[in-house]
Amino acid sequence: MDRDLDPTVQRRRLQVALREARIATGLTQREVAEALDWSLSKVIRIETGQVSISMTDLRALLDQYEINDPKQTADLRRMAQAGKKQTWSNYKDVLAREFVIYLGYESAASILRQFESTYVPGLLQTEEYMRALIKTLADPGTSDRVIERQIEARLRRRSLLQRADSPQMFFILDEAVVRRWVGTQPGDPKVMRQQLRWLKEMGSLPAVSIQIIPFTQGAHFGTKGPFVLLEFPDARDDDLLFLENSRRNVVTRDDADEIEVYKSAFFDLEKIATQASELDAFLDGVLDTMPG
Q: Within the chain, which residue ranges are assigned CATH 3.30.870?
């Protein structure tokens, strides 16, 4: 049901509905701002979902757009109320803002497609692997509290795999992901061996597909960097592209052309990757090269 959707999705639907209502009246954002004695930036922030909207401001917009249908106004008020909640906001002190936004959408997705070039995707990490990785990548001086909070958030995120209505998840990993040892100390394969066995277990889940692009395939689109594509069960909700790198994270739903480029690239990567049914054999081959 709509009321069960993540607040991020509710807020997105509200911003789209309000923008469409404004366009239907023929008003510009500037004209709305002047009519309501608001700043132009306030209207823009509301329509782009950068801020939640108060009931007072929503009523003002509904009056301005002459929306008086009881069902429509009730739906918009419900979206506004639901959109004020922040499922992942408790972690905004330790996670990047864009990633917090992404997590809200992830929990409402029906299909997830992810390519990773360097590390095991967060959803598929063991606790030992994520702990070692987060500590290794943390900025100098990062407190133990921040690290533990980041681990806590990542463990909570993994619950998506156990949901009865979990999305269909398609993961493509570059071979470097399963060859690079991540552990408590250099040269110790214990954590990585455990992680590879966990990948085999995750790959057996009905909603999960894991493919690997062998080194022998050479350079490919994925070497540009990791990315995630989300699709949603409702046609009103646009697909989402999430790009993550060491400098910044990017969440976009408004650039349909760019999203299509990455979606086509993902399908091309599937063609050069191993089949999901070959995962166990591939990982066993990697495990055989590791001591211990």
A: 92-289
| Domain 7-83 classification at class level | mainly alpha
Q: Are 94 and 150 in contact (CB under 8 A)?
A: yes
Which CATH architecture describes the domain 92-289?
2-Layer Sandwich (3.30)
Q: How many CB atoms lie within 10 A of CB 38?
A: 16
The first and second tokens of residue 113, run together, are 């497609």
Helix, coil or strand: residue 229: strand
User: DSSP assignment, residue 173?
Assistant: E
Instruction: Record the pTM.
Output: 0.78
- Check pLDDT > 70 for residue 84: no
Q: Are the C-beta atoms of 106 and 160 separated by less than 8 Å?
A: yes
* Whole-number Cα distances in Å, 11 to 55, 70, 71, 82: 13, 20, 18, 8
